[in-house]
Amino acid sequence: MKPICITMGDPAGVGPELIVSLLDRLKPGRHPHLILIGDEMILRRAFYRLGGSQAKAWLKTAQILDPQNISSLQQLNILSLSRLSPDRIFAERGSAKHGKASWEYIEAGVKLCHSGICDGMITLPVNKDSLLKAGCPFPGHTDLLAHLDRKDSVVMMMVLEKIRVALLTHHIPLQDVPKKIEQEKIISCLKIIDLSLKKNFGISNPKIAVLGLNPHAGEQGKLGDEEIKVIEPAVKKAQANNINAIGPIPADTAFSRAKKHEFHALLAMYHDQGIAPLKALGFERVVNVTLGLSFIRTSPGHGTAYDIAWKGIADPNSLISAFNLAKRLITTSSAK
User: Which of 59-63, 189-193, 201-205, 255-259 has the lowest mean pLDDT?
Assistant: First the structure.
């Protein structure tokens, strides 16, 4: 397996300490080579202040890469792209400076994947407001990665072990959701989900359940007509294209059925419809996966957590899950 790159995320968030926590749990030689993309001084501060003996052992053998000549990689490599002051982390929290750095880390990760150096990337949380202050035209990872990978359409999927929830819409106001529910968009999402479940997850005939927008999936039009006018026709067209999709089904019972593994994936109509129940089932283990990219990308299913950052108490399980899932997806994809 080629190396996996890990972007540090927001310098004032939990990203740096989660990287340290991950390495405290990994034994050298048993995992793919890693390239940490971020700020060397910030990472060193996190290692020294928050790292255990295992993480510090990793750091002693780390190679600092030349951004212009990345070759002969070691087990752990650091690609340092910014020169931030560890003593000003909190004073500059939420700033354009941090947003610009986070943005550059993501761009570098995509370039490593495009160049064939890395098989995939794991991204640590960024601050959306910082990105916008820095001039980034995209509110978060998903849209930015699609742009950098030159993809017209990608799908955000949240994964909790064998429960997988994709989103038709994600970071938009709730009042705008009904206008964004279109047949072609649903069909496009279902095609990407179907292909990804086959290629990346190794599921030969994935079953995808499409959720309704309204309570009880509209109750035959009594509680809304999006199901009748848009969602059901889109599901039928997807079925005609040999996609094993069903629905629309009521969202209030979908997750109890998903826990029994009746489906391989759910397609939710909007952010909180899909993510809130999933996080209630296992917040600390949820992983964000971007489907439809030319490379594997996973991320912890949480944000920067400024309130607990740099205190050594951030739970690393979501990053550990993201790391393990990335390895599995890369292995499965390579075998196809």
Answer: 59-63
pLDDT surpasses 90 at 139: no
All domains in the chain, ordered by first residue: 1-151+297-336 (3.40.718.10), 154-292 (3.40.718.10)
Q: Is 283 exposed, middle or buried (0-12, 13-18, 19+ CB in 10 A)?
A: middle
Among 155, 157, 187, 169, residue whose Cα is nearest residue 264: 157
Helix (H, G, I), strand (E, B) or coil at 210: strand
Secondary structure class of 173 (helix, strand, coil): coil
Sort strands 296-300 and 287-291 into parallel, antiparallel or unpaired: antiparallel
183 vs 193: CA distance, rounded Å: 15
Distance separating alpha carbons of residues 68 and 74, to the nearest angstrom? 17
Amino acid at 109: G
Pairing mode of beta strands 296-300, 265-268: unpaired
Give one DSSP letter per residue of 47-77, joined into a string. HHHH--HHHHHHHHTPEEPBTTB--S--SEE
Q: What is the pTM of this model?
A: 0.95
Question: Which two tokens mark 162?
Answer: 């064998």
State the pLDDT at residue 336.
Answer: 63
**What is the sign of the dihedral through the CA atoms of 300, 306, 307 and 308?**
positive
Helices (H) and strands (E) in the chain, counts: 13, 12
Q: Is the pLDDT of residue 301 over 70?
A: yes
Q: Of all helices (H) and strands (E), which one includes residue 41?
A: helix 40-50
Cα distance between residue 265 and residue 166, in whole Å: 7
Report whether 290 contacts 145 (CB < 8 A). yes
User: Long-range contact list for 302-308, CB < 8 A, 24+ apart?
Assistant: 302/125, 303/13, 303/125, 303/127, 304/9, 304/10, 304/12, 304/13, 304/14, 304/15, 304/125, 304/126, 304/127, 305/13, 305/14, 305/125, 306/12, 306/13, 306/93, 306/94, 308/14
- Could you give phi then psi for residue 230, rounded to 5 degrees? -125, -55
Length of the chain counted residue by residue: 336
